[in-house]
Design a protein that fits this description.
This protein has 6 helices and 5 strands, in the order αβαββαααββα. The chain is of the alpha+beta class.
Length: about 140
């Protein structure tokens, strides 16, 4: 089983964030520029929220608000679920599935060290399964 640490070592530790008083427009622009579906909301060195495309669609567009004048803090999800680097990928998949979330920040001793998406998790699990299948096939063939 692969750990979150191993996934971050492989994929990188880029963390894209905005400040709580940045506009939602700035957040959406950052997400579009980086090709991501959510951005973390950070104040100083503290994680205070997460803002996703889903938040934008449901809390700005559907309510007729302006993305240029609405602040991130007004629509962000404040209760952010996160994991430590020592958790297993399968645990992350279970958490994300149970809580119906697509992005999971990684915190180590109170410090933000990375971010995982559901795509990262699925890709890792599929790669692990492929490796196991290849090993079993080699064992059966007697290699």
């Amino acid at each position: 089983m692969m750990t979150v640490q191993q996934v971050l070592d492989r994929k990188g530790r880029d963390i894209w964030s905005i400040a709580p008083d940045d506009s939602v427009f700035d957040a959406i622009n950052l997400m579009a520029e980086k090709g991501i579906g959510a951005t973390l909301v950070v104040e100083g060195d503290q994680l205070v929220g997460i803002l996703s495309e889903r938040d934008y669609a449901r809390k700005v567009i559907l309510r007729g608000k302006s993305s240029r004048t609405t602040k991130a803090r007004e629509i962000m999800t404040e209760k952010v679920l996160y994991v430590s680097p020592h958790r297993y990928v399968e645990e992350c998949m279970a958490l994300m599935t149970d809580k119906r979330i697509r992005h999971l920040p990684v915190m180590d001793n109170g410090k933000l060290v990375g971010m995982l998406s559901i795509g990262d998790i699925v890709k890792t699990i599929l790669a692990d399964q492929k490796f196991i299948i290849e090993q079993l096939e080699n064992y059966i063939k007697g290699y």
